[in-house]
Design brief:
This protein has 25 helices and 19 strands. It folds into four domains: 6-135, GAF domain (Beta-Lactamase, 2-Layer Sandwich), CATH 3.30.450.40; 154-341, Beta-Lactamase (2-Layer Sandwich), CATH 3.30.450; 351-505, Alpha-Beta Plaits (2-Layer Sandwich); 517-688, Hypothetical protein af1432, CATH 1.10.3210.10. InterPro entries: GGDEF_dom (IPR000160), HD/PDEase_dom (IPR003607), HD_domain (IPR006674), HD_GYP_dom (IPR037522), HDIG_dom (IPR006675), Nucleotide_cyclase (IPR029787), PAC (IPR001610), PAS (IPR000014). Residues 520-642 form the HD domain.
């Protein structure tokens, strides 16, 4: 939110502050960050000027603390980019700085005046790791550049006020020349007017040198101003302009302008930024000659002869003589085309989902409100949800999940019409707004999307999307009711479609895991057989025995979510790699618990690395807190692993493996199961030999 600091830029610069506030609000939503702040340097402190308004808004006190912290001070001190996140702190020539636990990611840049003095800082901070912020850092720089351009414009406007005051004194003496003939006539040249200025003022100024100096300063200031300036007479004819005006209007030089000036104003077409053409009596000149004074009016300009288009910001006011009669107008312009492009890009990005390029929830909600009118009825809402995305993320990683999301977005776009609004509103959720579309037509569109999805694959996976539709026909009905109806229908469809998709996904996961490693496949099959043998000795029911054998086969399914380089590493694993390996039991649990028919074995897979003495993982369960089936899997898994050749270890002899089981009896393994295993299975195997 804005602090009451408009005076810092002058009383007339509220537009700048408002624009910066809007950009901060857009930026915080684009980055999904906690806050964006703009500070101003005051002595050795960074005083808060603006803080963003968002759903995760920080209060004023917190923002004040952030604005004056060591990070912003370091940006001011070093004039360098400052980045800090959970992993690293990068401050060129900076100190060893630390945030409190509530701030995890910080990125800040200095803001400078045109003469390189420091104005303050712009920074983004978050209470979580924000990878998007680090990837899209250029967006913050573009906002910084716009602010610096505004600061330059502010300085120029202050200079113009001083210049205008001097011009008014001069114009009082030149009003006859201003009203006589347009630009190009010899008697209205700046040279002649300067001469008249001298003659007129020789009576007033005792020092002739001072008079000459004043005229020269005025001429130099007018010619060298970076802002485009032109002066008209009372008839609206341009009688003087500076070089910046020639550049602004896209003329080669002043000679060309004088030649074509007779076609003014028909040489130009002026429009508001919404495309509406501005009639001549509402142009800056016409309004100034009516007595209006306006600042920062923005227009779209087109030269009819060259079709060049640009955007200008206009300040204009009338020129009055001492009796108050309007004798002309002064117009000051700046080309803001590039700035508006940058702002438009930022606004567009703030309405877009960064991953898929579709519209985001913010835009969807605004469009739904805008389109919820009688003229768009029937208005149909379609909700879509990707089946199995979480399962794929857990199994194959988020990179594969992101590919699935992008491909799904492409399929939905391909199946929709240009007028339809498509948005990604959640992790795996999409909304489609279909204006002037009845329910039957919407169903046809949905069926078309599903056909396109069935023909696409991401890796080994088909794209599966569950949809729900609802149509509003009566303008008085609440739109929320139709959203709920679409959501309910989508979830009903998802119940059946998602189950089939997840079952197929698990089959693909197991197939992929075994295709990567014959050793893994053989190990899983041996563990499954061993579990079946132990389960039979324990007199498990037929159903429980079947579940145990499946759990033994799938006990390492979670390894699909582990980096292959770690799984296949031949050297001993370091601490971080070992912790990564430990995650496979939890990943396996999430994968299997997503399908009802595997929900029972999911718990067994989760616990198969727990130890009898409570020193296992992931939950440190001990003794009979661990399910019986998980204890069986743990024993079978360990014995087969010891008896098998691995990339990081040689196979043990049977005697060595048996000795290890005896050693870990009552520590790693259930002592009763070890006794049963050694007596009934290992010895039986010896007898078979």
């Amino acid at each position: 939110m804005m602090k009451n600091n408009e005076h810092l830029l002058g009383n007339d610069q509220v537009n700048f502050i408002n624009r910066w506030q809007n950009m901060a609000d857009l930026l915080v939503n684009y980055f999904c960050a906690q806050a964006v702040i703009i500070t101003q340097k005051e002595n050795d402190q960074c005083k808060l000027l603006i803080s963003s308004r968002s759903k995760c808004d920080v209060d004023d006190h917190a923002a004040e603390i952030i604005g004056s912290n060591q990070y912003c001070k370091s940006v001011i001190k070093t004039l360098q980019r400052c980045l800090s996140d959970k992993v690293q702190t990068i401050i060129n020539q900076g100190d060893n700085l630390k945030f409190g636990p509530e701030i995890v990611t910080y990125l800040g840049y200095p803001i400078r005046f045109p003469d390189h003095r420091v104005f303050g800082t712009i920074c983004v901070f978050d209470n979580k790791e924000n990878h998007l912020l680090l990837k899209q850092e250029q967006m913050l720089l573009q906002i910084r550049d716009i602010i610096e351009s505004d600061l330059a414009l502010n300085i120029n406007q202050k200079q113009l006020l001083i210049c205008e005051k001097g011009q008014q004194e001069t114009i009082d003496h030149l009003k006859k020349a201003l009203n006589e003939t347009p630009l190009g006539a010899p008697e209205t040249t700046l040279k002649l007017r300067k001469k008249r200025f001298r003659l007129k003022n020789q009576k007033t100024f005792k020092n002739r040198a001072y008079c000459d100096s004043s005229a020269a300063v005025l001429e130099a200031a007018f010619a060298n101003m970076t802002e485009a300036v032109f002066i008209t007479n009372a008839a609206g004819e341009i009688v003087e302009c500076n070089d910046a005006w020639i550049t602004f209007t896209r003329f080669k030089d002043k000679t060309e302008f004088i030649k074509k000036n007779e076609k003014y104003p028909h040489l130009f077409e002026v429009s508001y930024l919404n495309g509406e053409v501005v009639p001549y009596d509402s142009w800056a000149i016409s309004r100034a000659l009516k007595g209006e004074t306006v600042k920062n009016a923005e227009y779209l300009i087109r030269r009819r002869d060259t079709n060049q288009i640009w955007i200008g910001s206009y300040n204009y006011s009338p020129i009055r003589d001492k009796s108050g009669i309007i004798v002309g107008a002064v117009v000051i312009c700046s080309d803001i085309t590039e700035r508006k492009k940058a702002e438009e890009k930022i606004i567009n990005l703030s309405y877009r989902d960064n991953l898929t390029g579709l519209y985001n929830r913010r835009f969807y909600e605004q469009e739904l409100t805008r389109l919820d009118q009688a003229g768009n009825l029937p208005l149909t809402l379609v909700m879509g949800d990707i089946n199995g995305l979480k399962l794929i993320n857990d199994s194959f990683g988020h990179i594969m999940g992101d590919v699935l999301l992008k491909k799904t977005a492409e399929v939905i776009e391909k199946g929709c019409r240009p007028t339809d609004i498509i948005a990604r509103v959640g992790g795996d959720e999409f909304m489609i707004i279909l204006p002037k579309t009845d329910f039957a037509t919407a169903e046809k569109i949905v069926k078309g999307i599903k056909r396109l999805a069935a023909a696409e694959k991401v890796g080994s996976f088909e794209i599966s999307i569950s949809f729900g539709c609802s149509t509003k026909d009566n303008k008085n009905d609440d739109m929320q009711k139709f959203f709920k109806q679409a959501e309910d229908q989508m979830y009903r469809n998802k119940l059946s479609e998602s189950i089939r998709m997840r079952r197929r996904t698990i089959d693909i996961i197991m197939k992929t895991l075994f295709e990567k490693s014959d050793q893994e496949m053989l190990h899983s099959k041996r563990v499954s057989e061993s579990c079946g043998e132990i389960g039979a000795l324990l007199n498990l029911s037929e159903d429980d025995l079947k579940q145990l054998k499946i759990a033994g086969l799938m006990h390492d399914i979670g390894k699909m979510g582990i980096d292959e380089d770690i799984l296949n590493k031949k050297q001993p694993l370091n601490h971080e790699e070992w912790n990564e390996i430990k995650r496979h039991s939890e990943i396996g649990y999430r994968i299997l618990s997503s399908v009802n028919e595997f929900s029972k074995i999911a718990k067994q897979v989760l616990e198969h690395h727990e130890r009898w003495d409570g020193k296992g993982y992931p939950n440190g369960l001990k003794a009979e807190e661990i399910s019986l089936q998980a204890r069986v899997i743990a024993l079978s898994d360990a014995y087969d692993a010891m008896m098998s050749e691995r990339s990081f270890q040689k196979a043990r002899s049977k005697e060595g493996a048996v000795n290890e089981l005896i050693k870990e009896r009552g520590a790693q393994f259930d002592p009763d199961l070890v006794d049963l295993f050694l007596k009934k299975i290992v010895k039986q195997g010896d007898g078979d030999q």
